[in-house]
Design brief:
Blueprint (H helix, E strand, L loop, with lengths): L1 H18 L1 E2 L2 E9 L10 E9 L3 E6 H7 L1 H17 L13 E5 L2 E2 L2 E7 L4 E8 L2 E8 L6 E9 L2 E10 L2 E8 L17 E7 L4 E10 L6 E2 L9 E2 L2 H13 L1 H8 L6 E4 L21
Parallel strand pairs: 5-17, 9-16
Antiparallel strand pairs: 1-15, 2-3, 2-14, 3-4, 4-7, 5-6, 7-8, 8-9, 10-11, 11-12, 12-13, 13-14
InterPro entries: GLPGLI
Protein name: GLPGLI family protein
Amino acid sequence: MKKFTIVVFILLQYLDLRSQEILVLNVMYDFSYVRDLADTVNRYKAEMILSVGKQTSRYTTRDLFNRNSPAVIKLNKQRQEKANTAAIPGPAVVAVGGPLLNVTNAGALINEEIFIDRNKSTIQTAGRVGFKNFHFTVSLPVINWKLSSDKKEICGYTCQKAVGDYGGRTFEAWFTTDLPDAFGPWKLHGLPGLILSARDTKNEISFECKEITKNEDPEELLKPFMNADRSIQVKPKEYSKVAGMFAKDPAAVAEGQLPGTVVNVRNLDSPEDNSIRKVVKYNPMELK
């Protein structure tokens, strides 16, 4: 029985590996989001990376991408080795304290990954809320895009305009057939080309391409960075509720997850400021 279990495990691992595909290209977007309707001036901003294959895509933060991408890890290792060679030895620094909560001037940091699999017709959302990881998987929704004849150039590519509804919002997207991948930032997909720019008609959410790089490593596979086996499976509404509570009071949620601990705060925008900005009127990206 034990040998049978081992064989099944190895077979599943093999099938999972076979289902993964080679990464084709990475697209960096400037992401802007009015998370607090009570303060539309201080928008949440971040650099996001969309990694694309033939049938799958992964959309995540630049930070998570840099910590997991084989190419970036290799480059950082080379830089560190070079720095260590040139550095003058000094006293060791020991860091102490409780768990660290990263925030920005717009509030708690959003650390999320969206993985689309067209073969399985699924879309998985995985996110770190406070100090816990959550995930859920749903069927890939169909977005009924209406194509326009309007065109403009983005990142060196001729793009065509399309309008479609998703998550209770109407999005205006610009896609290029020069990159015939039916993917885009976040959960936007289904056009006959890669989406390089999109924004909702309320101007509360926007994605703007700033850089496109093609993968040069023929062995780099496109797979999720966030391990679903180590996170809590929830329903979409449960995840939205937890994310909303965290945005409104990050410290309270984080301390509730780790009772009896003192949470330290690090503001990535203003290192000298250890306060946490609370969202007053939470504005979810998906309204329904």
